Amino acid sequence: MNDGKEQKTGRIEVYDTTLRDGSQGEGVNFSVADKLRVAEKLDHFGMDFIEGGWPGSNPKDVEFFRQARDRDFQHAKLAAFGSTRRKDYGVEDDPQVKMLIDAGTPVVTIFGKSWILHVKDIIRTTPEENVRMIFDTVKYLKSHGIHVIYDGEHAFDGYKNDAEYALSTFAAAAEAGADCVVLCDTNGGCLPEEVAEITAVVKSRIICPVGIHTHDDCGLGVANALASIRAGAAHIQGTVNGYGERTGNCNLTSAIPNIAFKMGIPCIPQESLRHLREISNYVDEIANIRHNPRQPWVGSTAFAHKGGMHVNAVHKVPHSFEHIDPHVVGNERRILVSDLSGKSNILIKARELGFDIDDSTLELKEILDKVKEREHEGFEYEAAEASLKLLIQKILEHRDPPFSIRGYHVSMRRDEGHYSVCQATIKVEVDGQTAHTVAEGDGPVNALDEALRLALSRFFPQLQFVKLTDYKVRILGGSQGTAATTRVLIESTDGNDEWGTVGASENIIEASLQALRDSMEFALMK
After folding, report:
1. Which pLDDT score is estimated for 416?
2. Around Cβ 27, how many Cβ atoms within 10 Å?
3. Are the C-beta atoms of 43 and 74 separated by less than 8 Å?
4. At what angle do helices 127-142 and 95-102 cross, to 10 degrees?
5. In principle, which of 55, 168, 454, 464 could form an S-S bond with 437, CB 3.0–4.6 Å?
6. In three state form, how does the secondary structure of 390-448 look?
7. Distance between CA atoms of 247 and 250, rounded to whole angstroms?
């Protein structure tokens, strides 16, 4: 539709290029095994097309396509990616085109030049030969019974530079039999209104469906893709979590729910949408990339509420501060506790943590005041719910801690001019009995951790199974230099559960010990 209104009928094809375009992003690297696992996960999720790589560019992609032949894809069609034939070269003699056919995929996607600048100055051929390269390659692939998708590289820049020439390249692909002509904002520099206008013109001038492929260099990758769909595009290309060169590609974990829930157009199977956060986390895990908590829709903070007034409202009427039910994309509502909290934050969070309290609980204000006081001192409970649970329990139940630390000492020993090992001694008291232990470690925190666990294990053998899995340090108020407060966040596990604890002090060792103490105390409370 070219009237600027949102499309209400039809279905949008979703083409995932995480394994090809996404892998070109800095820090993203998939092995063959990784690519096969991700491809199977994307197929199960319901992608229409999965672009596996460029078989003409590297041996890994050749091997991927070889192994992929033995996999049974239930929903998606696997696509090999490549380019048009080379200039002044017969298409049937071009080895790169031959490798695309040899990949044995039901779909082949090729890119060609839309921008006269690239035709003359990059591949250095004539405008006429470039058009023939596009036509010949599409027609040749179609003659082999292949579903052909043509990606018009720099489609929008090319159109703005010379509209008629760009249109002639798209028309050549369509007339040669392309199943879809995809307009690529390769440099990611267009605005949504430009994308919509040009999509509408192209759709009116060619004889096959139009698709959209955007990059995020201006932060508009998703917005531009949606603008193109609104103008009539029926096919979207992108990557999970927005992986891709430079600032990345159109983020499918944002585009898909926007298409489905905001535009009301079918794309991914409805039953798959509740697995969106799962697929986002899975791909990050395989790529060994830390998940971005602030991702729209799927991030851990996407439905997190911190301000007291917001929490109070969302507790009464969820959609008062949520644009959609988080469960429809596999996410969940989170209530955060901080110095911005009101009683509603504490009440809801305490219930989440298993405490039976309500508005009439006398200790509610005391808990709130204590949280605000400790946040002012540098503590932070958003990622340290175990420490928060201990704080609430001590106030509600007036319970003494199961152990106390009577003293500690940390030293570092030099060995032939190099630091070799740290040593920590610690003295703990449990029910009037004391244990005084010493342990060595790779650093002061590791040594303290070992010494504390060794001392407490005499009284609580179950603590031998508790392990520290992550350790983060943040300096607060950096203008104070080495006297600044240090916040330490620790993640621990007993092999079954994981929990986070926090400490804060001008002394990094003291802050670390606070977090370690909370970790052990929480393990005992469990």
Report:
1. 63
2. 8
3. yes
4. 30
5. 454
6. HHHHHHHHCCCCCCEEEEEEEEEEEECCEEEEEEEEEEEEECCEEEEEEEEECCHHHHH
7. 10
**Residues facing residue 148 across a β-bridge:** 108
Its pTM stands at 0.72
Q: At what angle do helices 508-525 and 444-457 cross, to 10 degrees?
A: 30
**What values do phi and psi take at 250, rounded to 5?**
-55, 125
Strands (E), 166-311: 180-185, 210-214, 235-238, 304-305
Q: How many CA atoms lie within 13 A of 288 on its CB side?
A: 7
Residue 2 has pLDDT above 60, yes or no: no
Tokens of 54: 């460029």
Cα separation, 262 vs 265, in Å, equals 8
Question: What's at 111, amino acid-wise?
Answer: F
Residue 341 has pLDDT above 70, yes or no: no
6 pLDDT more than 50: no
More confident residue, 173 or 59: 173
What domains can be seen in the chain, in order of their start residue? 13-287 (3.20.20.70), 304-377 (no CATH), 378-393+466-526 (3.30.160.340), 403-459 (3.30.160)
The pLDDT tens digits of the residues spanning 391-427 come to 888 888 887 889 999 999 998 876 665 666 789 999 9
Which residues, at least 6 apart from 332, have a Cβ–Cβ distance to it below 8 Å? 303, 326
Secondary structure letter of residue 400 according to DSSP: P
Q: Is 360 helix (H, G, I), strand (E, B) or coil?
A: coil
Q: Which amino acid is at 522?
A: F
Cα angle 453, 454, 456 (rounded to 5 degrees) comes to 65
Asked whether residue 195 carries a pLDDT value surpassing 50, the answer given is yes
How far CA 488 is from CA of 119, 189, 375, 479, in Å, comes to 56, 41, 13, 18
Candidates 208, 191, 126; CA nearest to 157 is: 191
The neighbour count for residue 119, using CB atoms within 10 Å, is 25
81 close to 20: Cβ distance less than 8 angstroms: yes
* 280-312 pLDDT tens trace: 989 998 888 888 989 999 998 887 777 667 766
Tokens of 406: 């009577």
- As given in the structure block, the two tokens for residue 367 are 């808990």
Residues making up the chain, counted from first to last: 526
Question: Which phi and psi angles does 158 have, rounded to 5°?
Answer: -65, -40
Question: Three-state SS across 462-512?
Answer: HHHHCEEEEEEEEEECHHHHHHCEEEEEEEEECCCCEEEEEEEECCHHHHH
Query: At how many degrees (to 10) do helices 364-377 and 343-352 cross?
Result: 100
Question: Which residue type, as a one-letter code, is found at position 232?
Answer: G
Cα dist from 441 to 139, 436, 446, whole Å: 67, 17, 5
| Spatial separation of the C-alpha atoms in residues 4 and 483, rounded to whole Å | 59
pLDDT digits (tens, 9 = 90+) for 431-460: 999 999 999 988 888 899 999 999 999 999
Question: How far, CA to CA in Å, does 72 sit from each of 41, 77, 144, 386, 387?
Answer: 12, 10, 22, 44, 47
Rounded-to-integer distance, Cα 140 and Cα 7, Å? 34
